[in-house]
Design brief:
- With 154 residues, this protein is α+β, with helices and mostly antiparallel strands.
- The protein has one domain.
- Helices cover 34% and strands 29% of the residues.
- Strands 4-3-2-1-5-6 form a 6-stranded antiparallel beta sheet, covered by helices on one side.
- This is YusW family protein.
- InterPro entries: YusW.
Length: 154
């Protein structure tokens, strides 16, 4: 019985450790601040935010086996970032992904009222997406709480 319990605890520990690999540990001083922390100081979230979003997801499909994916979340517990580019055989998580994504995110200036085509065009330009894509989808949660999905299918 103790052996099963020990095995179960070990397994849970390994799983939980694996889930945190994409967390950014070395957050730059100018990185987006946590919304709750800024509310406690009386500042508005946009005063502290480097980006106008707290979650950003990009999924570009080139074929059934080739895609480009970006995941970014600014959670209460910290920033998580992932980047996977099948064409360049690149898979980054945590600090490495954030370092590559931060300058790209700073170039994005759309908000929840920006038309779909303008958002997609901007993302294609900023992320240097090859024109041979089959579909592109961007999911964003903005600082103001609005969530929006932008899509283009060829």
């Amino acid at each position: 019985m103790k052996c099963k319990l020990l095995l179960a605890v070990s397994l849970v520990t390994v799983i939980l450790y694996g889930c945190n690999k994409d967390e950014v540990k070395d957050v730059p001083a100018n990185a987006p601040a946590d919304q709750n922390a800024s509310q406690q100081t009386g500042e508005t979230p946009t005063d502290q935010m480097t980006f106008n979003f707290i979650e950003f997801s990009l999924d570009v499909d080139y074929s059934a086996t080739e895609s480009y994916e970006v995941e970014y979340e600014d959670k209460k517990t910290g920033i998580e970032a992932k980047l996977q580019d099948d064409r360049k055989n690149e898979k980054l998580q945590g600090d490495e992904a954030y370092t590559k994504l931060e300058p790209l995110f700073k170039q994005l200036n759309f908000d929840s009222t920006t038309p779909n085509d303008k958002v997609i065009d901007q993302v294609i330009k900023v992320f240097n997406i090859d024109d041979s894509f089959q579909s592109i989808e961007v999911d964003v949660e903005f600082v103001d709480g609005n969530e929006k999905e932008f899509k283009r299918i060829k």
